[in-house]
Amino acid sequence: MIEKYAEFVGEQEIDAIYKLAQRLSDLSILHVNSTAAGGGVAEILQRMIPLMRELGLRADWKVIRGDEEFFTATKTFHNALQMGKAVEVPPHLYQVYEKWQEINANELDLDYDVVFIHDPQPAGLVKYRKRGWWIWRCHIDLSTPHPEVWAFLRRYVSQYHAAIFHIPEFARDDLEIPQLVIPPSIDPLSPKNREIPHTTVERVLKKFDVDPERPLLLQVSRFDWAKDPLGVIQAYKYAKRHVPDLQLVYLGSPAHDDPEGEAVYREAVKAAGGDRDIHLLMLPPDSHLEVNAFQRAADVVMQKSIREGFGLTVSEALWKKKPVIGGRAGGIKIQVIHGVTGFLAITPRTAAHYTVFLLREPKIREEMGRVGREHVRRNFLITHQLRRYLMAIAYVTKRHRA
Amino acid sequence: MKLDAKSLDTRGNGIPFKFYTAYYVSLYSGMQAKTLRQLLEGVKAADSRVLFHHLFHTIRTKHLIPPKYTNDFARWVGEEVGDEDLAAELSDISGAEPATLEDIRREIVEILEPRADERAGREKFIFVGMEPVVVKTDYVAHTLADFLDLLEVVPGESIVYHFVTRRVLEGAGRNDFSTWLEKNFGLSEVAAQLSKIDPLMYNSEEALRAAILRTLKKALL
């Protein structure tokens, strides 16, 4: 399987990955997260683990379990860590969290040489560490966390040998452990990103009453205030004054663990105001083919987030040669290079301006799309992340010198 | 000095050149700057791995930034603070042999100090350090002919490792290519010409590779 990636990143990159893996071949490696399916972390691990095994590494993946109360606690922590003080955290949730860490530590075999713990949900397992190097892989924005929740979590994170963040801005001054920076990645061979026939694209668009012949603006993200759906609709409305046949697709998934999603969706419907060219689509989380088709059909892709972890939908769109208009938030800033792979825009008016500009200038759109794909090819494919994980293991285990 | 084509096939003193390559683990340094003054303080305080990262980041990362500025400090001053004159000056610093990281730091401080005021960038400058992870490649040159051929095909990371990282960060004092040319073949003049290439003036691995190849071809072919 790994050889299939050589067409994207070259034989030399694959060769370096093999060599790094050889250096680590005596180590057992475990990844732990909180869900086997759904969400970016699970998506990456589904491919990362087989790749690590193919390299001859003894890699496993385990998923913690919990009851509804536990996941309410972790969801609350997640929001509190990303959104700061605004979130109310009932004190008993800390005990719920601790109780399930203990249950999982008793049930899971954590006896590995290197353990990657993904995100806050299983972070407390470190309390039960018996041996090995433990690395906390953080996938969220920790730059302005809820002080109390972070203080609680920090007690655990400080016990790790290292932490990994997506971008330097998310690293913490109040952590003494080494903090590595590794961006996440997309898989060019996954159903969401692989090449698909043009007919499939057309078929999917028609299924949702979107006209393949008319210009299309797209945002793929949850119905979440952080993704600024109302700002996207506003930007579309401004742009439509200049491009009357413009269509907007906002493609999200229902989030059962996020009651706010419903309310945001309702507000978005209200803001759309019966415009038949605005398509607010709620598709199941595994609608990879549909996402792929819409990203390929779009003329301009938007990711107008106000807060963002990394925003891999940006890389997904760039990979499909689409320029992206992105908010100045989190990892969007390293994917959207202003004026090169797209434009950074804060207000709906600015976003509308760049949308119209790109729609009006097909050659620039094409060139930015070409450069955008190259940017992803060089930096944000799964093999890069695999190599960086191996480098992180080499660094933490002091094997980084040849 | 010109060599005839046959000389390219000799093995000199029999020392092979083994190509290594390096990738870099990025590490948060704990230092940030909002203003030019804080940037100056950061440059003064940064350890060698942080300084190396920001000076040679441009050449070794797979970026697509237009080649206006040749190091991260200049880019931040130009694009975030908006002082293009100061940015251009910071882009003009020299990293050619025998400049050490301390020499480069001194030059940056000299340029920055008189103008380091409270002007702030739109985004903070975050000081990041790095640690090389060195990997041996399968490429080995025994002759000058091998060497020339391989320089064109080895990974770009390998060129930067031998030409920049070994000298600037690992204290080899001189780039590995010049050292080998002199030690194995006694080609002091060619080695000296190669040493004149200033890696800080290049904004990609491929641009540096092209400059090295150009110099060697001119001298050896």
How does this model look, in words?
The complex is a heterodimer of chains A (402) and B (221). Chain A is α/β, with parallel strands linked by helices and 402 residues long. Helices cover 45% and strands 14% of the residues of chain A. Chain A has helices at 6-9, 11-23, 40-54, 68-83, 92-107, 147-157, 198-207, 229-240, 259-272, 288-297, 312-319, 332-335, 348-360, 362-379, 382-396, and strands spanning 28-33, 58-63, 114-118, 133-137, 162-165, 179-181, 216-220, 247-252, 278-282, 300-303, 324-326, 342-344. In chain A, strands 2-1-3-4-5-6 form a 6-stranded parallel sheet, with helices on one face. Chain A has a 6-stranded parallel sheet with strand order 9-8-7-10-11-12, sandwiched between helices. Chain A starts with 5 loop residues before the first helix and ends in a 6-residue tail after the last helix. The model of chain A has no long low-confidence stretch (mean pLDDT 94). With 221 residues, chain B is of the alpha+beta class. Helices cover 50% and strands 19% of the residues of chain B. Chain B has helices at residues 36-45, 48-60, 72-81, 84-91, 101-112, 144-153, 156-169, 176-185, 188-195, 205-220, and strands spanning 17-35, 120-141. A two-stranded antiparallel sheet of chain B has the order 1-2. In chain B, helix 1 packs antiparallel against helix 5 (101-112). The radius of gyration of chain B is 19 Å and the shape is elongated. The mean pLDDT of chain B is 91. The A-B interface holds A 12-13, 15-16, 19-20, 165, 168-169, 171, 173, 178-182, 333, 337, 340-341, 371, 374-375, 378-379, 387-388, 391-392, 394-395, 400-402 and B 20-21, 23, 25-28, 30, 62-66, 123-124, 126, 128, 131-138, 155.
